[in-house]
Specification:
Blueprint lengths: L1 H19 L2 H16 L4 H16 L5 H21 L1 H12 L3 H14 L4 H18 L4 H9 L3 H4 L6 H16 L7 H8 L4 H16 L4 H11 L25 H21 L13 H21 L5 H35 L2 H10 L8 H16 L2 H19 L4 H18 L4 H10 L3 H29 L2 H20 L4 H5 L1
């Protein structure tokens, strides 16, 4: 009963998101229920808990506030570049280089694979570069959000030189030392787990299969068809977009390139400085504060391009920038704050610990342990909206289980937890990476969540079958055969559908 009550707010909230398509009211409902359960249904104590949770976010100078500030700055940067004509110039330049609709999407996916330092960084930066190109070829914002989301965490989770890699390696190092495990170091165990990362591998494969086959499924198909007709219902409209000048302002594509380049450069330089100018400590740094200051520099650069251009009204440019900030403050910020509060509330109800206790206390056969860890990690991240929380709770369980059953399974168990957490994170509408991917693509959150979910579930199904295969036969080659077979079957089923473009024609 305790586990059911701990998961009840998340289950109600996610059901409401799917049924009503109203994200804010669904999140608020889930949050209130979680607070009441936490406070033993005492309204006064529940109100106090909610107030303290909100204050905790709004006074978090090292994590939450910098992210909120950066999201607002994204609105300002986008609106400023749109107003001065920088986005239009970049789109025209990009279309001359990127010759097709598929290529515009492939570039987005490729950038997600290349820029693998942090999932937040991917989600919010790649969208800025990709939106002009994908808009030029009438790619829906829901599809762009999917491309960003599915090439950020699935890539980062397999990269030791990333913020995620540094966090996980540190956890593993401490666990190994505490359990006298010397076969692997934290770093070598992370590397050894990569071949067993079945979910990230299948998720990335599905991105490029759907892209190059020009076919989509479920809600994504609908959004893509509408976008090709010139009516993208998944698009989150920025107020100042209507004020983009029709005439040539003299601003070239360099405005967007230099603005985003300054964001990336400033962020990395500040992380390097916080690490004491040591490359070895670079990835141990939190990216939030450097990202915020990178956003400030990028915004300043965009303003400088506007001020130096001819035919740009400086006062109206300032108004456009402010409207962009307010648009993000009205749309993305409330959702992000509520998602964080819900995630914290579900964790305070100890949903993760209760799930972990259930698996720890059961006599599960070693043959089904890999897939069980994968699904439990997925369920935990789905309910709580955080993959990092699942890492922190389940890795300390997976390591002793591996030592007590079969130490050679250590990389497998680690990969099952990591991949499962990414799966749950992808599937959850309250995940911060889900929210930020939608924000980076300037897509409606519900549109991103509902259109990405089928791909996530298919990838998870393929991964689960692969883990079951390994548990039964202890053969990585056979597991890859199942993984590839699952991907091929998906591609063959997809091939029977007409292309999205032909359906519009």
């Amino acid at each position: 009963m305790e586990l059911f009550m701990a998961l009840l707010p998340a289950l109600i909230m996610i059901t409401l998101v799917i049924v009503t398509r109203r994200v804010l009211s669904s999140l608020l409902t889930g949050l209130i229920i979680a607070a009441l359960i936490y406070a033993d249904f005492n309204p006064l104590n529940a109100s106090s808990y909610l107030f303290e949770s909100l204050v905790g976010i709004l006074t978090s100078l090292d994590w939450y506030l910098p992210i909120l500030g950066f999201v607002v700055l994204i609105g300002a940067i986008t609106s400023t570049l749109a107003f001065i004509g920088g986005i239009k110039a970049f789109a025209e330049w990009g279309v001359s280089k990127v010759k097709s609709r598929v290529a515009s999407q492939a570039l987005t996916g490729l950038l997600g694979v290349i820029i693998c330092i942090d999932d937040y960084f991917n989600a919010l930066v790649i969208g800025e570069v990709s939106i002009p190109l994908t808009d030029a070829y009438k790619v829906s914002r829901a599809k762009l959000a999917y491309l960003i989301d599915s090439t950020s965490a699935p890539v980062v989770i397999m990269m030791p030189l990333s913020t995620w890699g540094a966090y996980i390696i540190a956890i593993l190092g401490g666990l190994f030392a505490g359990n006298d495990y010397t076969l692997h170091s934290g770093f070598s165990a992370f590397i050894a787990a990569i071949p067993y990362q079945f979910y990230p591998l299948s998720a990335i494969a599905l991105v490029f299969i759907t892209l190059f086959m020009k076919r989509d499924i479920a809600a994504m198909e609908t959004y893509e068809k509408d976008a090709l007709k010139g009516c993208d219902h998944s698009k989150l409209v920025i107020d100042s977009e209507e004020e983009t000048p029709k005439e040539n302002t003299g601003v070239t594509h360099h405005a967007l390139i230099v603005s985003i380049g300054s964001l990336v450069g400033t962020t990395l330089i500040l992380m390097f400085a916080l690490a004491g100018f040591r490359f070895s400590g670079l990835l141990d740094q939190d990216i939030t504060i450097p990202l915020f200051f990178g956003g400030l520099v990028s915004f300043a650069v965009a303003l400088i391009f506007g001020v130096s251009a001819h035919k740009v009204n400086i006062l109206k440019m300032g108004e456009a920038s402010l409207k962009g900030m307010l648009s993000m403050a009205k749309s993305a910020i409330p959702i992000l704050i509520l998602a964080w509060m819900v995630s914290t509330a579900v964790q305070d109800l100890e949903a993760g610990s209760l799930i972990a206790s259930a698996i720890e206390g059961s006599n599960i056969s070693i043959t089904v342990l890999p897939v069980t860890l994968f699904l439990v990690a997925g369920g935990m991240a789905f309910a709580t909206g955080t993959s990092w929380g699942a890492f922190g709770i389940l890795l300390p369980i997976a390591v002793p289980i591996a030592l007590s059953t079969n130490p050679e399974f250590m990389p497998l168990f680690i990969a099952a937890v990591l991949g499962g957490a990414v799966f749950g994170d992808h599937a959850s509408p309250v995940s911060d990476t889900t929210v930020l991917s939608a924000t980076g693509a300037q897509s409606k959150l519900h549109a991103h969540f509902i259109s990405q979910l089928p791909y996530v579930l298919i990838s998870a199904g393929i991964a689960a079958l692969s883990y079951m295969t390994y548990g039964l036969f202890e053969s990585l080659a056979l597991s890859y055969f199942v993984l590839i077979l699952g991907i091929v079957v998906f591609a063959l089923v997809l091939k029977r559908k007409p292309t999205t473009e032909s359906m519009v024609e």
